Structure formats: structure tokens, C-alpha cells
């Protein structure tokens, strides 16, 4: 079911608040918190900056994120946790954006802080798996991590064969100490699926090998090679409604498809160094951003050629437009 299918458009005052930046100035702190808790399902929280790979279907390949490492300030992380705890946030927290989380040797202590403050959240992250083995999994499990998704990325400009993927799957399950679970895993299994899933030490693990050159997004039009990049977007998008994206320095972007590094000059929705999560979520920039993505029609800015899938029904467009006209 699509996110908006769960909402009664005409009777939901909260949707009006999400779209009208004039209302945000009139909302109380409690109203802003209620709005956030009601609609946000995923908090994307980037705890560090660097990645050790240069995948050609990722903007990291042409940024300084390969050579510079930085970390989210501990005081900032504590602020974020306490603000989320104020509304008893209990949904998902994803600890990655354009970084490799396992390069952070203090990752476990940060996960432990999050789980102490927000015990009912589902904490997970994506990884390339280069730094993952049974010992690291043990400390991650002890910290409270719920899940990890490992993607077997190929080297730049390399197409992985099924036999290569099969070897890599065997290698990583061996490093994790569970090779006995996949003793019969073969090339046929690689061609019939794009992932395997299992649990170890209470952590749900997914190892996947999709072809991101075919199924990946163009990162809001930033990538012009290797992935679909010629889209003209007319579909709505739910990401700025249901996700809240925080980069390592506290900068909030309207979408996880936005890429941030030292050379990228994107207008941010605000900084958590100076503002609260709720002020930013209910603020003018995100209200306008959501308003531009609510109905069908040509999109602007970083959304103009974005290839993120959406499953909104065109028959709902008249109702969407009616809501926008009522603002």
C-alpha cells in the first residue's frame, strides 16, 4: 500500500500542516512533535563521513569521501537521541547515507547510546561488508544492532559474474562463521535470487548482490553514467514526508537521495547544531519541498529527473490538487 493511501485526504489536518509553510510558524512545539511522530517512519542518521570504495554508480566515486574521515559530534548525537526520545520515537533508524559505517571504530558505542535512549527503535545500516567478520558482528550484536544489509559491490566498471558472486557469498559467510548454513549455495542460487537472509547472534543479516547499474537510482539526477539518468519526473514522492535525513555534521537534507560533500552546494533544510528536529521538519523549506512533490506534474530542482520509484495512483491526483488549492 502506498503511504498516501493510508491517509484520508479531506479530513487530515496534519497533511495540511505538512504542506503549508505559513502554518509552521503558528504551530506549537507539541504540534510539531506530533506531526513528526505521526508521519516519520525512517530517520537516516549518518554517523561518519568516509567510504573505502569507489563504486561507479555512487557519487562517492568523485568526492573526497574516499580520503577524508569525519565523525558526528557526540554532543550532537546525544541531542538527536534526546529529541527523538521526547516523542518516544519507535520506528527505524538507518545509520548510513554515503559512508561505510564499519570504518567507524566507535560505532558500537554510538549504537549502544541510541538503543539506551530509544530502546524500541529498529537500528540497522547498509555496509559493503569489507570490515565485517564474526568478531565485529559479536560487538555489534552486544551494542544492540538489529539488522545489517551487506551489498557485494563490484569494483568500478566491472560486471560481476554469477560464479564471482557465489565465491564472494561463501567468503563472507565463512568470515561470519556460518558457512555450514550455506554449504550447498551455488551459482544457480545466485541466478535465482539477489540476496540471502539469515540471523546470527540476534542480528538479522541480509547479503545482496543487485545490479545497481540497472536498478539503482540516479541520486537526484547527479549521476549521468552507469544508471538511468534521463528521467523527467512527474510522479509524487513520499520521502520528504516519511523520512528525516541527517548528515554527519547535523545538516538536514530533504531527501536521502541528496548527496553532500565538501564540493556540493545544496540548500539544506537547516542544521541540528542550532535548530531542533521538529522545527526543521515543520519548517518553511521542507514544507515547500513536500508541497512540490505532493501531486502529479513536472518536478523542480534535484527532483526534476530523480528516478526513485513511487506507486501513487493517478486517480488520486484530483484530490491531491484540491488539497493544494485549499492551502
UniProtKB/TrEMBL annotation:
The lineage of its organism: Bacteria, Pseudomonadati, Pseudomonadota, Gammaproteobacteria, Enterobacterales. GO terms for molecular function: 4 iron, 4 sulfur cluster binding; catalytic activity; metal ion binding. The keyword Metal-binding applies. It holds the Pfam family SPASM. PANTHER family: COFACTOR MODIFYING PROTEIN, FEMO COFACTOR BIOSYNTHESIS PROTEIN NIFB-RELATED. Residues 47-153 form the Radical SAM core domain. Its cofactor is [4Fe-4S] cluster. Residues 237-307 form the 4Fe4S-binding SPASM domain. It comes from the Bacteria. Keywords: 4Fe-4S, Iron, Iron-sulfur, Metal-binding, S-adenosyl-L-methionine. This is Radical SAM protein. The keyword Signal does not apply.
Amino acid at each position: 500500500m502506498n503511504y498516501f493511501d493510508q491517509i484520508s485526504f479531506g479530513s487530515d489536518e496534519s497533511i495540511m500542516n505538512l504542506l503549508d509553510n505559513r502554518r509552521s510558524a503558528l504551530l506549537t512545539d507539541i504540534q510539531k512533535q506530533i506531526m513528526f511522530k505521526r508521519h516519520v517512519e525512517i530517520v537516516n542518521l549518518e554517523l561518519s563521513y568516509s567510504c573505502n570504495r569507489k563504486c561507479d554508480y555512487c557519487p562517492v566515486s568523485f568526492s573526497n569521501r574516499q580520503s577524508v574521515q569525519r565523525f558526528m559530534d557526540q554532543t550532537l548525537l546525544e541531542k538527536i537521541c534526546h529529541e527523538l526520545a521526547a516523542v518516544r520515537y519507535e520506528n527505524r533508524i538507518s545509520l548510513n547515507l554515503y559512508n561505510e559505517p564499519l570504518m567507524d571504530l566507535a560505532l558500537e558505542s554510538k549504537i549502544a547510546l541510541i538503543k539506551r535512549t530509544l530502546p524500541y527503535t529498529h537500528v540497522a545500516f547498509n555496509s559493503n561488508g569489507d570490515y565485517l567478520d564474526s568478531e565485529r558482528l559479536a560487538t555489534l550484536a552486544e551494542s544492540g544492532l538489529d539488522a545489517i544489509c551487506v551489498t557485494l559491490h563490484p569494483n568500478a566498471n566491472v560486471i560481476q559474474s554469477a560464479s564471482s558472486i557465489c565465491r564472494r557469498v561463501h567468503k563472507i559467510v565463512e568470515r561470519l562463521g556460518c558457512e555450514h548454513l550455506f554449504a550447498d549455495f551455488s551459482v544457480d542460487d545466485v541466478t535465482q535470487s539477489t540476496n540471502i537472509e539469515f540471523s546470527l547472534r540476534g542480528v538479522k543479516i541480509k547479503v545482496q548482490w543487485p545490479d545497481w547499474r540497472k536498478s539503482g537510482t540516479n541520486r537526484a539526477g547527479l549521476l549521468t553514467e552507469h544508471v538511468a539518468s534521463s528521467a523527467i519526473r512527474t510522479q509524487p514522492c513520499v520521502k520528504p514526508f516519511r523520512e528525516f535525513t541527517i548528515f554527519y555534521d547535523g545538516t538536514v537534507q530533504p531527501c536521502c537521495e541528496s548527496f553532500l560533500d565538501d564540493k556540493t552546494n545544496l540548500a539544506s533544510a537547516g542544521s541540528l547544531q542550532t535548530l531542533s528536529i521538529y522545527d526543521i521538519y515543520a519548517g518553511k523549506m521542507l514544507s515547500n519541498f513536500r508541497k512540490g512533490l505532493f501531486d502529479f506534474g513536472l518536478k523542480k530542482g534535484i527532483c526534476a529527473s530523480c528516478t526513485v520509484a513511487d506507486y501513487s495512483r493517478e486517480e488520486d491526483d484530483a484530490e491531491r490538487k484540491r488539497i493544494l488549492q485549499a492551502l
